[in-house]
Amino acid sequence: MDLYEYQAKELFARHGVPVPPGRVASTPEEARQAARALKAPAVIKAQVKTGGRGKAGGIRPAPGPSSAEAEARRVLGMDIKGHTARTVLVEKATVPFEEYYAAYLVDRAAGTFLAMVSTEGGMDIEEVAATRPQSLARMPVDPAAGVDAETARRLTDQAGLPEDAREQVAAVLTGLWRVMVEEDALLVEVNPLARTSDGRVIALDGKVTLDDNAAFRHDHAAFADPPPDRGAAGLEARARARGLNYVKLDGSVGVIGNGAGLVMSTLDVVAEVGGGRPANFLDIGGGASAQVMAAALEIVLSDPDVRSVLVNVFGGITACDAVAEGIVTALGTLGEVGHPIVVRLDGNNAEAGRAVLDAARHPMVRMVPTMDDAARAAADLAAR
Amino acid sequence: MAVFLTKDSKVLVQGMTGAEGTRHTARMLAAGTEIVAGVTPGKGGRAVDFGDRRIPVFGGVAEAVAATGADVSVVFVPPRFTLGAVREAIDAAVELCVVITEGVPVHDTIRFVARAEATTTRIVGPNCPGLISPGQSSAGIIPADITAAGPIGLVSKSGTLTYQLMYELRDVGFSTAVGIGGDPVVGTTHIDALAAFEEDPETEAIVLIGEIGGDAEERAAAYIAEHVTKPVVAYVAGFTAPEGRTMGHAGAIVSGSAGTAQAKKEALESVGVRVGKTPSETARLMRDVLAARGGSAS
């Protein structure tokens, strides 16, 4: 789960990393109150989970409460790269004297954590890494030892930070490491990490990605957006509530399969072999029951863009007869189904599964023996 | 010979008394695996019957290894207990620890992978289907009835795509199929499996299955160029995946221009690996490769 800036800063503050005083607001009036409480010039920052807010006009100075209200009115509802700003962060304006960069992330290639620190904050770090790699210190972090004061100090030395800033930045780095470990984060990034003219070091922005797999040992539920009830996001939320892994896409062939790799491959085969466009990704997982399969079919058929459905199952743990029973159950409860359903079953209990569908003789269900032919048939039917 | 897992492997199952553990222990036994022990904390001293086989249950891995000589562990415990279970297996010095569990926190995986690094224990997974050396042994959940022993080695991030390719090439057969898992951090990598297949006299050709996310396939390509003399055929899933969305596997995400299927395909092709656009085309390419070598698929 990616966090909003204001949520990331909540976690920073919880672990002793200095952030500017501020408050989140969802209406212009709240923004005015927040600015008044600051008793200082403010900045209004759109809360969206994407970069490039500044260029899009999502970050605006507000010298006083009334301008805070006016600027919040301008920013709230703004679309930034497809993300709508539903809230703004009203924060005390801070003028950086110098801007640094600090991050911890999971280095997939090395299979461990990586710390990155740079004197060149406030810009695209990938560009810094590509053009001036010498100004970006990178250091793998031993997961058993973590980042203590000494390691943090070594990082600041390696990054070549000004001598008189190193101690404070090192303190920030140990605090950010606590965020990483104690909150089970996959990414903690501060860009810029500002040094003010009076010598303080403050996280001016914050990006945190939490590991959903670790949700069981944290109280992070409050960070989640309320589930939308309409549109593509609504469908995805409904699928998630039923334990299904569903991603809405923009084509017309609904795709259901078992296992992430096989479903991804099925989408590709619909495009490559069938010349069609997949309407979604839906993984029913391993060992899915008839109920899970029925729920999957119900979700996919409720997508108004879907013109045909392809069910592609290779039974490993999943039993193909359970999948077939689920299809029959769903068709029984859904009433009239307006779109054809192409089914390919192989592996565990495939013959029993085919027998179930044969016996049901549903007019909209067609069985096709191979993955390629099934994808072609589903794409053809969607194009009709 | 096969790689990592042979008919001589003595397997213990951590979490054998749970529903998943019991079910898959029965299936592994049916596949010919020599299962010597189950481990469930607090349930030591019991035994579980699988047909005419009685498998003893131990309270800890060290105890089970001492009593049975087990050298492989298969882990079916829930995510919150996985780190502890794998640590135990590493500390008991099993040679191979196969972590089937899905949903393990990445921090925990990083910890047990780091711990294993300083030892002789190989980790496969987490969030993987395990591995099978058909006709010899199975450690995990890959169905044993798809195909028999043969000259192809397979390494894959995905379970069901492994099954699909094994099925497409079922008349040829496999030395070992290794499912390394789709999480961002895994123990055994594509490269580790490639190195083992290169050394294995029974493996004549290799199927590499990748998917979007990370750069494991690109690194595998670089490794192949330097170290692999056997023919490699590859398949990459996720050409139609949109940017920024996780496609089922936690690691399967395209970020900006990084991790795309196209980039992986190009990296593999640039070192002479033939890449299929679909599983069926990949199987055809493998048949061509084996035919050209005068292998068993000609």
Q: Count interface residues per chain for the largest interface.
A: A-B, 51 and 59 residues
Q: What is the total tally of β strands of chain A? A: 18
> What oligomeric assembly is this protein in?
heterodimer
Return the string of H and E elements of chain A.
Answer: HEHEEHEEEEEHEHHEEEHEEHEHEHEHEH
> What's the Cα radius of gyration of chain B?
19 Å
State the total count of DSSP E strands of chain B: 14
Question: Main sheet of chain B, how many strands, which sense, barrel?
Answer: 7 strands, mixed
Strand residue percentage of chain B:
15-25%
Find the structural class of chain A using helix and strand composition.
alpha+beta
How large a portion of the residues of chain A is in β-strands, by DSSP E? 25-35%
Q: Kindly, what is the distance between the CA atoms of the first and last residues of chain B, rounded to a whole number of angstroms?
A: 23 Å
Brief description of this entry?
The complex is a heterodimer of chains A (384) and B (298). Chain A has 384 residues and is α+β, with helices and mostly antiparallel strands.
What labels describe this entry?
heterodimer; A: 384 residues; alpha+beta; Dna Ligase, domain 1; D-amino Acid Aminotransferase, Chain A, domain 1; Rossmann fold; 3 domains; six-stranded antiparallel beta sheet; four-stranded antiparallel beta sheet; 12 helices; 18 strands; elongated; B: 298 residues; alpha/beta; 2 domains; 14 strands; Succinate--CoA ligase [ADP-forming] subunit alpha (chain B); nucleotide-binding (chain B); Citrt_syn/SCS-alpha_CS (chain B); EC 6.2.1.5 (chain B); CoA_lig_alpha (chain B)
Layout of helices and strands, plus pairs?
The complex is a heterodimer of chains A (384) and B (298).
Chain A: H1 5-14, E1 22-25, H2 28-38, E2 42-46, E3 59-62, H3 65-75, E4 79-80, E5 83-84, E6 88-92, E7 96-107, E8 112-118, H4 125-131, E9 136-141, H5 149-159, H6 166-182, E10 185-196, E11 201-203, E12 207-210, H7 231-241, E13 245-248, E14 253-257, H8 260-272, E15 280-283, H9 290-301, E16 308-315, H10 320-334, E17 341-347, H11 350-360, E18 365-367, H12 371-383
Helix pairs in contact in A: 2-3, 5-6, 8-12, 9-10, 10-11
Chain B: E1 10-14, H1 19-30, E2 34-39, E3 47-50, E4 53-58, H2 61-68, E5 72-75, H3 79-91, E6 96-99, H4 106-117, E7 122-124, E8 130-133, E9 137-140, E10 149-156, H5 159-168, E11 174-179, H6 190-199, E12 205-211, H7 216-227, E13 232-237, H8 261-269, E14 274-276, H9 279-292
Parallel strand pairs in B: 1-2, 1-5, 2-4, 5-6, 6-7, 10-11, 10-12, 12-13, 13-14
Antiparallel strand pairs in B: 3-4, 8-9, 8-11
Helix pairs in contact in B: 3-4, 5-9, 6-7, 7-8
Binding site for substrate (chain B): 163
Family (chain B): Belongs to the succinate/malate CoA ligase alpha subunit family.
Protein name (chain B): Succinate--CoA ligase [ADP-forming] subunit alpha
